[in-house]
């Protein structure tokens, strides 16, 4: 058995995704990376805040995902940190995503990068863009929930 069988370690997260989109469905995709990119990823040197996915010619690619160059890697011919990378999904999943993302207001959004069973995976979400009033409503709910939790903690402190 390997040292990390079945467990997953989150390497990068897109925190803006839940703020900007209603995530309706998620898909786990593999990534085509070079050796130095995976080493850099395992060191937590990735950013998917501005990344997005597109489908072209039956293949899905991720754009603007930043993976910093590996320090001990190839210094003479470094790769572009934001180059377009191919994602690995089943053909049926790609076709389903293609059909759903063609609808008005839907996007394919990267949610997080993690390692599962030794392989780097990217969690993609099918998101419907939030309008400004939806974002305010979400923030109000989050603040109300925080106030409730704070009040409960205060009540428990008094009860002791």
Automatic annotation (TrEMBL):
Q: Does the keyword ATP-binding apply?
A: no
Please give the Gene3D superfamilies that the UniProt record associates with this protein: 2.40.280.10
**Which Pfam families does this one have?**
SmpB
Please give the InterPro entries that the UniProt record associates with this protein: SmpB (IPR023620), SsrA-bd_prot (IPR000037), SsrA-bd_prot_CS (IPR020081)
Which residues does the annotated region (Disordered) include?
133-160
- HAMAP family, per the entry: SmpB
Q: What does this protein do?
A: Required for rescue of stalled ribosomes mediated by trans-translation. Binds to transfer-messenger RNA (tmRNA), required for stable association of tmRNA with ribosomes. tmRNA and SmpB together mimic tRNA shape, replacing the anticodon stem-loop with SmpB. tmRNA is encoded by the ssrA gene; the 2 termini fold to resemble tRNA(Ala) and it encodes a 'tag peptide', a short internal open reading frame. During trans-translation Ala-aminoacylated tmRNA acts like a tRNA, entering the A-site of stalled ribosomes, displacing the stalled mRNA.
Q: What protein name is recorded for this chain?
A: SsrA-binding protein
Q: Specify the species.
A: Paenibacillus illinoisensis
Gene giving rise to this polypeptide: smpB
